[in-house]
Structure formats: C-alpha cells, structure tokens
Amino acid sequence: MAPGTVNDSARTLQSELAKFNKDNEGTLTTAGTATAYTLTLNTTPAALADGLAFSATASITNTGGATTLVVTPSGASAFASKKIKVYQAGVEGDPTAGSIVVGNHYLFQYDSAADSATGAYILLNPSSNGLVLLASGTASAAATLDLSLASGYEQIEIVLTNLMPGTTGDNFAIRVSTDNAVSYKSGASDYAYALAGYNDSGSANVTGSAAANAIVLTGAFRTAAALTGQIVVTIPRPTDASNRKPILIKSVYPAAATNVSTFDGSGAYIGAASALTHVRFLFSSGTISTASYRVYGRRG
Questions:
Q1: In what helix (H) or strand (E) does residue 152 lie, and over which residues does it extend?
Q2: Phi-psi region for residue 162, left (φ > 0), alpha (ψ -120 to 50) or beta?
Q3: SS3 for 295?
Q4: Closest CA to 153 of 126, 174, 171, 129
Q5: What is the sign of the dihedral through the CA atoms of 193, 138, 287 and 198?
Q6: Are 255 and 200 in contact (CB under 8 A)?
Q7: φ and ψ at residue 189, rounded to 5 degrees
Q8: Which residues of 75-106 are buried (b: 16+ CB within 10 A; e: fewer)?
C-alpha cells in the first residue's frame, strides 16, 4: 500500500467498524406493524448471507403467527421480505404473540436454510418462553373442533380467534380425552374450575361450570359478522405424581382491549392418571359457525 493511502484507508475501516457496532449494540429500532416489521441498518451488506446479525429495539409487540421482517441496508435497496422464526428444542416455528415486546432488545441472525430453505431471520432471544407454532387451521359449520395434543411438550397453548356459534345465545364448551379421542371425560367430578370473563358483548359475565362431558363457559355467545379478542387454552406439564394436567382459560371475548380478562385461578383439572391426548371445542346446542386456531408448544 502506498504510504499516502494508509491514513484514508484506516479512517474508512474505523468508520465501517463503527457502523457495525451500531448494528449490534441495540441502538436500531424497528418500524412497521405487529406482523410485518421493517429495519434500516447502518451498514451496507451487499446481499443476505448466513450469519448476518444485528440487534434492534422493538417498536411494537407482535401479535403471533406469520411475522416478517424487511431489512434495508444503509443507502441501498431493501432486501426481500423474510419471515422471523424461532427455534426451541430443535423445532422451528412462527413466533407466538408476545415473542417480541415493544421496548425490548432482540437479536436476529439470518439463516438461508430456515423456513423451508427460503431464508428467515432467527429470533435468538424471544420473550415467549420458546413457544413454537405446531399447527393452525380453521373450522366452518362444524359440530366440533377436535385438536390433537402433541406429546413431549412441557406446555401446549391453543389460541382460538373469530370463534362464533351457529346459534345466537349458545354456550361454549370444552372437553378433553385421555384415550386418543375414543371417549371424552364426563361428569362434574372430573373437573375443578375457576373461570370468569366477558362474552362477545363485553358486558355479560362469563362463568364456568362442569356439566356432563364438558367444561362450559356460559354467557350467551352471539353470532356476529366478526368478533375481536380470543380464547387461549393453556395445558401445562403434569403438576403432580398422578400426572394430572390443567386446562386454563386465559381470556374470553372482549369487545375492546380494555375488557380482556386474565384467569389466575386453579384452572380445570382432569382427575385422571393419564395425560391428555385431545381437546374438543363445541357449542352446547349448535355448530361452530367459524373459528381459527393456532396450536403452540414448548418443550421442557
């Protein structure tokens, strides 16, 4: 190198190192929405490559499910939109709601093999205890919504949205099976419950009862063009020697975000020594007009 170029090249190198440090010291902030984030780097990588990493502060809390990130190098065109993925015990999945919390700092690393080799940004420090998406789908004009509970997970979380009864004023019920859906538990003696909340009107109180074959949420769920809010069923790992597993209803249809009710009671315990294999959702006298579901799991 010619002596006259040493000074300028050293200054350029120092400038690039400073930009690299800014991309990794948490001073970046995302933009965009709760399912489609954007981020502008200080550095100017020529292309997405394995190991590209950066740290950023979240501008909004994610709402769960498919979540994307568009990264733009400084002074250049944006890279293609890629999904954000999380890994937990070797399982890749979409981040569950609250994996990214507004104001928190997160580490991302690009992996070209992720998301079926289409490439994804791996969220290295999610805030959701490692919950990964196991299954998702919809139900329409169905008598029941039956979901299989994956084995080997410390926790299963089922999120129901846009759940509507086919009959106005119907009650919502939950049943569980320990024999691969051959039969479902029945009788009040099988359950202990502590449920409360709001129905889709946001005003009537919802209570739980252990009716025959089901845990029933009463409160006259109504048919509507669209329902906001969600029902979340959490099934934790066995809590005692008899291998009982609780079902805990965390929230029931709010009309507005301020009406979301969190349940911290005992939940609904199945009094059997066998692990749960299936959970069934249904309305007491009618069909499920429509529903969307996501099933998450976390390994111990």
A1: none
A2: left
A3: strand
A4: 129
A5: positive
A6: yes
A7: -70, -15
A8: eeeebeebbbbbbbeebbbbbbbebbeeeeeb
Q: pTM of this prediction?
A: 0.57
CA dihedral 255, 261, 262, 266 (to 10 degrees): -120
Contact call for residues 294 and 198 (beta carbons, < 8 A): no
Residue 155: how many other CB atoms lie within 10 Å: 16
**Higher confidence at residue 12 or residue 102?**
102
pLDDT value at residue 96: 78
Predicted confidence at residue 241, as pLDDT, reads 45
- Among 84-93, 136-145, 224-233, the range of highest mean pLDDT: 136-145
Question: What DSSP designation does 259 have?
Answer: G
Residue 233: predicted pLDDT: 79
* Residue-range domain boundaries for the chain: 3-123, 132-298
Partners of 36 in the β-ladder:
68
Place of tokens 């050293």: 10
93 with 156: CB under 8 angstroms? no
Fold of 132-298: Jelly Rolls (2.60.120)
- For residue 26, the one-letter residue type is G
Q: Give the least confident one: 68-77, 144-153, 195-204, 254-263.
A: 254-263
